[in-house]
Design brief:
The protein has 282 residues and is α+β, with helices and mostly antiparallel strands. It contains ten helices and nine strands. The chain has a five-stranded antiparallel beta sheet with strand order 1-8-3-6-9, covered by helices on one side. A four-stranded antiparallel beta sheet has the order 2-7-4-5, with no helix packed on it.
Length: 282
């Protein structure tokens, strides 16, 4: 893996499945736009994450978020590090389910607050280590369906990591954490009523927040404004109808909540990077 003291354009060979694995010793100080996990397979290494330094031994793992400076220096001969580098798009959903706003958004936004390492003696590390090994094997062998298993193992590791993080004193929020805002009922309501007109005031009332504060928190939690979130829901349903029915496009637009065909076409193309006709023609 070629590294530099600054930004690195890490090579992910398949942009439709953005992940790569590197077997390295020392890692020079750098940062990149991807998430990276450094697993100490053998020996010891001194890991730097931003301004923090930790010595990790065999079976221990460092979590580096996107845009964090990081480096590693092996402290023993024959030390071996395994680095998994992947884009967050591989594990994040479309922003429409509870995993997005309860786990990934807080992790990405509060990146300095989450623990950077997991020690070998932590209960979660045993399963993480096993998942790490399975992930590497699947990625190297590339048997049919390996992408699904690799993604499943990534999510398994994240699940164990978030479980550890919630129990760890390493997370010290300076303000009310995003996870304290329970948007589950609201998001469920939006998924069931996406075709209706829902105002910010109505949505804010459902979670007992002022409209202005609701807009700020909703954007932090979901990564989208309320109208953007609803548009994604509508376009997803429209795409399903385009592929599974012969209904006219105008009828589909109306069914998912758009009264203006031009506006529907513009929003659909913005989200899907294709027109409704393109989708139906595939």
């Amino acid at each position: 893996m070629t590294v530099s003291p600054h930004k690195e354009n890490t090579w992910l060979p398949d942009q439709t499945f953005p992940i790569n694995i590197f077997f390295v010793s020392n890692i020079y100080l750098h940062w990149h736009d991807h998430i990276e996990w450094i697993y100490i397979k053998e020996g010891q290494a001194r890991i730097q994450i931003d301004a923090d330094f930790e010595t990790l031994g065999q079976g221990e793992l460092a979590f580096i978020n996107s845009k964090q400076l990081h480096a590693a220096t092996c402290l023993e001969p024959e030390s071996k590090l395994v680095c998994i580098v992947f884009n967050e798009a591989l594990v994040r959903g479309s922003g429409l389910d509870i995993t997005e706003h309860q786990y990934f958004q807080p992790y990405l936004i509060q990146r300095q607050k989450w623990p950077g390492i997991i020690r070998a003696n932590e209960p979660e590390m045993r399963e993480i280590g096993q998942a790490f090994a399975r992930l590497v094997d699947e990625f190297e062998e590339k048997r049919p369906g390996y992408e699904l298993i690799v993604k499943a193992e990534l999510l398994r590791i994240f699940g164990q990591y978030f479980r550890y993080a919630q129990q760890s004193a390493a997370i010290k929020f300076t303000r009310k954490p995003l996870s304290a805002y329970d948007f589950s009922d609201l998001l469920h309501f939006l998924r069931e009523h996406y075709f209706e007109t829902i105002t910010v005031a109505q949505a804010a009332q459902m979670v007992n927040l002022s409209p202005n504060y609701f807009c700020r928190v909703f954007k932090q939690v979901t990564g989208k404004t309320l109208i953007e979130y609803i548009h994604v829901l509508r376009v997803q349903e429209a795409e399903r109808l385009l592929l599974e029915t012969d209904n006219p496009v105008t009828e589909i637009a109306t069914a998912v909540g758009f009264s203006n065909m031009t506006y529907f076409g513009r929003i659909f193309k913005k989200i899907r990077n294709a027109t409704p006709s393109d989708i139906r023609g595939k």
